[in-house]
Amino acid sequence: MKNVVIAGATGFIGRALVEDLAGEYRVIGLTRRPRPSGFCPVSEWRHCDLFSLFECERALAGAEAAFYLVHSMLPSARLTQGNFQDMDLISADNFARAAAQVGIKQIIYLGGLIPKGVDLSRHIQSRREVEQTLGAHGVPVTTLRAGIVIGLRGSSYGMFRSVLERSPLILCPSWSDSLIQPIALADVIRLLRFCLEHPDKRNQGHDIGCTDILSYRELLRRSARVLDLKRLFVRLPLPLLGLSKLFLTLISGFPRQLVTPLVESLKHSLVANDLSFQQQAGIPGEPLEQALRAAMAEEKGSENFRAIHAFLAHSKHSLPDMEKNTVRSLQRISLPPGKTARWLAMEYTTWLPRFFHTLLRASTDEEGNLTISTRPCKISLLELRFAHERSAASDRQLFYISGGLLAKKTNLPSRRPRLEFRQVLGGHAALVAIHDYRPTIPWPLYNLTQARAHLWVMENFARMIGKKIAAENYLANKILP
Predict the structure, then answer these.
(1) C-beta separation of 39 from 16 below 8 A
(2) What is the pLDDT of residues 168-188, one digit of tens each?
């Protein structure tokens, strides 16, 4: 049978897709948590941290096609520095690089509808960047762009149904006038399967949706009617996004890191531009009421909405054991035209000794290894070994944090603390990232000192690179006739 990898196999869409493909395909499920038990007829579970290129390469090996059903809006370490857009970006870049390295023939990605205009919310902009990144390393990507997916275990469905279940009075700010074109879970699964069975050798994106286009307020009205709930809807003339974030966080139980980006996207009308792909596939889309009734039909006995939603909300607040004492830090830096991650890494190792010259000592040896130590007594604080074997390409440079007074040592081959410089978005930007770092000093003290010092250093480094870009632009403009 054809080997198919599903990144996000334990999620809402992933579980349904596994059940649909099992028996006809050899399904390989990827998970960051301990191997799941008691659900999903997966042929093989593979542990994969998408922030690790090494683990992605191992996890995708031997497969012919791969589904990418992952979002990175929740914290992935005890301390996470950086925004979810950069977390999403580096995960997608690892997946695409690994897919190209091991010979994956097709990536299928479920993203979000992208409205017209330039003032996009962070969440929608991130979905677009992930789509671009997945197709940047040579593997053909088929993207399905969807709005709200109606299904019992979906986050968006869980949020609006929580509001309807718990509040007899529904206040509808002005964002509730925005239009939405939802889609049934069953249609999403059928369309994902269609993409798998009809691969395309080009990067292609398709909008998908049901036959109904309606406002968020009308979506709530119709849902209340199907659920047989009598609710009073009151429209308010103001957007009240801040209060909406707080209210939905409290009433849904989901982390604010998940709720906030979704609420910020409510200002957009998310409507499919063209449903010709669905017509080609022969899957026109179920009406909204039918999709809602299908979601309700999934409830059985103790497995009702409230029990399922409480479990999902609790799980989104927890971290796997391996991440409980780690640090992840990502910063995005603009790259000058024609410059690479290798150039940026060399700039960093050259600039750091100058920046620290009065406080600490930073030195680089002939092998490219970097050591940060105290000026008096020369006590080594951090030792970074340049990974020549993993830095052959100029668009990614890697240092392993191999020692020093401030770093705990680990024997895990795939989860070693590391610093990397990575070129993204067609060379217009780079990510400087620390992964799986385990500090030796107590957490409260670390948060107050070393963690803040790292951000301070990176802010100054980014400022220095920005000045270089401005100076080069100035000189280029003076040279032009």
Answers:
(1) no
(2) 999 999 999 999 999 999 999
